[in-house]
Design a protein that fits this description.
Length: 292
């Protein structure tokens, strides 16, 4: 029982990061109908920038802010310079361009920083608190939960309570009608990419210290798990992305803990295939509302 409790809290901690990254994928999918396969590479690029600033200044939090702001800028630049000019007649065009971005970003990072793993520090300790002899959560895990909950709350507030959020939703669901009503659809798309990249950068800063460290390919496995979380929850559902992230995190933790880490990727793949076969729109999607 103690092991089950430990694995549950560990899975929720992992799942919170996957939820944040899946949320970034959903933000772009809802506005452009593109799965941004470059999201992981973009997050790594901003993490490198953040940790470079931390190393130069000695302040983790200055580097953390640099990574988030870098994500905002990188996302906006990617949309304005690259993705805006992609022919959207075929959905594959955007996918191919995103995959090309992955190669470019990882190649540039490898040339600048090299291909060896670099240590990435965390702002809080990772020694878990114990209750009744059972290790539960560390201070870093609590920081992860707080950061992800804050982001989810701010995004919900933006999309449900502000005029800008309403314009972003209108631009995503009915771009032509929105233009006729005077909405700057292009500007809303840029803002959507910027916010998504910033959330992805946050996820990168939260997960990289728990993995092997900084590397141009550091987010590849995280992207697979987070993409699965987005599909499980439904690419059109922000709440689904969060719940999907928690489901994938728990699945990975239980399978790794009871069957071994080598079986975990297979479990994620089986979950993805099962959801695609049984409910392709995701467990928490509302497809009817999206196509209405």
């Amino acid at each position: 029982m103690d092991r089950f409790v430990f694995l549950t809290f560990d899975g929720l901690s992992r799942g919170a990061v996957y939820a944040a990254f899946a949320l970034a994928l959903v933000l772009i999918w809802r506005s452009t109908r593109i799965v941004n396969f470059a999201q992981g590479a973009m997050a790594v690029a901003t993490a490198y920038a953040g940790y470079s600033v931390s190393a130069a200044t000695g302040s983790y939090w200055l580097g953390f802010a640099t990574a988030i702001l870098g994500g905002l800028v990188l996302g906006a630049v990617t949309e304005r310079v690259v993705m805006r000019f992609v022919d959207h007649a075929s959905p594959l065009n955007g996918v191919v361009v995103a995959l090309g971005l992955v190669l470019v970003i990882q190649g540039v990072l490898g040339m600048i920083y090299g291909n060896e793993f670099r240590p990435a520090g965390a702002p809080f300790g990772r020694d878990a608190f114990t209750v009744g002899g059972v290790a539960l959560l560390s201070r870093f895990d609590l920081f992860v939960f707080a950061a992800v909950a804050t982001v989810v709350g701010l995004l919900a507030l933006l999309f449900r309570r502000t005029a800008t959020g309403l314009r972003m939703r209108a631009s995503a669901f009915a771009p032509d009608v929105s233009r006729l009503l005077g909405v700057n659809v292009g500007g809303m798309l840029t803002l959507g990419w910027a916010l998504a990249a910033a959330v992805g950068s946050l996820a990168g800063m939260l997960v990289i210290p728990t993995e092997l460290g900084l590397h141009p390919n550091a987010m590849d496995v995280v992207f697979v798990s987070s993409f699965t979380a987005a599909v499980v929850g439904g690419l059109d559902s922000a709440i689904g992305a969060v719940l999907g992230g928690l489901i994938v995190g728990l699945l990975l933790s239980y399978v790794s803990g009871y069957l071994g880490a080598t079986v975990a990727p297979i479990a994620v793949l089986l979950l993805l295939v099962t959801v695609l076969l049984g409910r392709p729109g995701g467990l928490f999607s509302r497809a009817a509302a999206r196509t209405a």
